Amino acid sequence: MRRAVYDYVASQGREVGRNEAAEAAGVQRTLAAFHLDKLVDAGLLESGFRRLTEKTGPGSGRPAKVYRRAPGEWQVSVPARDYRTLALALAETVDLLGGDERAEEAARRAGSRLAERGEDLGEVLRRRGYEPYEEGSRVRLRNCPFHLMAEEHPLLICSMNLELCRGLLEGLGEDPERARLDARPGECCVSFSKTNEH
Amino acid sequence: MHLAQLNVAHMRAPMDSPELADFMAALEPIYKISDATPGFVWRLKEGDTPQDLIQHAYGDYLVVNLSVWESRDTLWDFVYRSAHLGVMQRRREWFLRIAEPYTVMWWIPEGPEPTLAEGMERLELLRAEGPTPRAFTFREFYDSNEAAWRPAAAEVRK
Once rounded to an integer, what is the mean pLDDT over residues A123-150? Predict the structure, then answer.
């Protein structure tokens, strides 16, 4: 239940009111509010107050409580594992050696192993944490699974991510050119054409 | 305070050669994006068209870009979160790989525009001393308040 509420708010990429979350999860408003506030307590969501209608002045009511995904990042690993420190050191090594083209080739191969021929692209992207959504003729990605790395080494990581996505398409048996760099603030750097026409 | 940024690149071939044609063609759309990005303040221009590269005395094959932004985030969003990313990704086709830093940032008072000579000095400073509040990078960034108090603190120690 709480998971469904979180998934809904996270997938909207904007502020969501209690009524809307309740409707989406198919539960009472008070129950949705309970879970929303628990998610805020856990640091997974942020809350604020905003007027959801255009009305202002007396009679417009008090502002509604709204929720959106918290910007922080949570990682749980039992037993303890630390891949980030090593990944950052390796990225720096690639930079120093000027090995970005090799790194992109490796990312492409890795991507092609992550998808099976005939699988659904959206499903594969969801499974990998990209949070795909449709916009016009393209599929965009709300989440960057490599965010921390991309903040430190944006050129290398975004180029590797593009090749990884192209590898995924190859694994699916699709045209790799459906993926291209299409960076936007706060989202992943890659988008896909919905069809084979780019 | 505003954030000034200089970046330099060594062309692999003359600007009017076929090797550089795609780069020259990318200038106009990219400047359109930079100039319309929220937080963009100013950039150094040479002539009336985007293809008029900045003239200078630092070498024939050196392309320079000097611009001013309201904050780190606005500059970041232009450099890495716009169509500029795709152009940067192709940099190896047009420019030589250089082992030393090729981009530098520093804080300036709002109003007066920085000069290319000042930018080249900051780049030299970064190359000589590594990132400091007077010359730094995205990865090792200094806030404007640090940039404001650190040089003063250094004076006191002398």
Answer: 95
